[in-house]
């Protein structure tokens, strides 16, 4: 990309970093992980600074896409990524071929531009419907009447403080705690997947299991390091994560 075009993007908070000397010092660890996070990073991936905190590493995003696709009832043909960010999970869902429609909601303008661009890099730009706005307003307004919907939500966790806790209190997660996420999204689908910190309190999660049903928790790791847990409701069948 020409220098003038890059400068224009950077004024919007969008970056295509290729030089480690230009990479923000406080994000340096992500520079060394960039190819693990994005397999096509060198093909021109766009990021915001905050995007590094929230993007799902590509191998985990792909695993989640497979697991969600296999566990969701066959009649569920639409998936909504409620906090799409720079596109990691939405891209994986679109690449899986499982869904008739993939909707990606993101309220930040620079971030959604990154997501759209990154989807093009991965060849799924025409398979994702991007919606800019607040998911808590958009989902009730646009998707509440559709019974074929799965909601995937990877919310902000309130910074990196969770990593210091052996057991993370999900009632303290900011800006949206577990209770808000669960109750707000459960109104619109019984098939809900929440992407939560790896140290999330399992006792808190268990309280949300509906009567006579189960909540399934998957623990994802990459190169031997624990990364994240997902909470899934209303599995269509007994599903074992590998």
From TrEMBL:
<dbReference type="GO" id="GO:0071164">
    <property type="term" value="F:RNA cap trimethylguanosine synthase activity"/>
</dbReference>
<comment type="similarity">
    <text>Belongs to the methyltransferase superfamily. Trimethylguanosine synthase family.</text>
</comment>
<protein>
    <recommendedName>
        <fullName>Trimethylguanosine synthase</fullName>
    </recommendedName>
</protein>
<dbReference type="GO" id="GO:0005634">
    <property type="term" value="C:nucleus"/>
</dbReference>
<dbReference type="InterPro" id="IPR029063">
    <property type="entry name" value="SAM-dependent_MTases_sf"/>
</dbReference>
<keyword id="KW-0489">Methyltransferase</keyword>
<dbReference type="InterPro" id="IPR019012">
    <property type="entry name" value="RNA_cap_Gua-N2-MeTrfase"/>
</dbReference>
<dbReference type="Pfam" id="PF09445">
    <property type="entry name" value="Methyltransf_15"/>
</dbReference>
<keyword id="KW-0808">Transferase</keyword>
């Amino acid at each position: 990309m020409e220098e003038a075009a890059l400068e224009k993007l950077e004024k919007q908070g969008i970056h295509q970093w290729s030089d480690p000397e230009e990479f923000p010092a406080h994000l340096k660890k992500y520079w060394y992980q960039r190819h693990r996070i994005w397999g096509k990073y060198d093909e021109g991936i766009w990021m915001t600074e905050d995007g590094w905190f929230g993007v799902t590493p590509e191998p985990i995003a792909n695993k989640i896409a497979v697991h969600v696709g296999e566990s969701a009832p066959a009649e569920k043909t639409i998936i909504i990524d409620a906090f799409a960010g720079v596109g990691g999970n939405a891209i994986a869902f679109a690449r899986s071929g499982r869904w008739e429609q993939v909707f990606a909601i993101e309220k930040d303008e620079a971030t959604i531009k990154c997501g759209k661009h990154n989807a093009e890099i991965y060849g799924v730009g025409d398979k994702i419907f991007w919606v800019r706005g607040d998911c808590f307003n958009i989902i009730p307004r646009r998707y509440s009447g559709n019974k074929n919907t799965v909601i995937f939500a990877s919310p902000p966790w309130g910074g990196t403080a969770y990593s210091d806790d052996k057991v993370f209190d999900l009632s303290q997660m900011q800006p949206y705690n577990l209770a808000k996420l669960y109750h707000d999204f459960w109104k619109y689908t019984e098939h809900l997947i929440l992407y939560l910190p790896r140290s999330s309190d399992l006792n808190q999660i268990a309280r949300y299991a509906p009567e006579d049903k189960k909540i399934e928790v998957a623990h994802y790791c990459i190169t031997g390091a624990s990364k994240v847990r997902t909470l899934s409701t209303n599995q269509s069948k007994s599903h074992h994560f590998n």
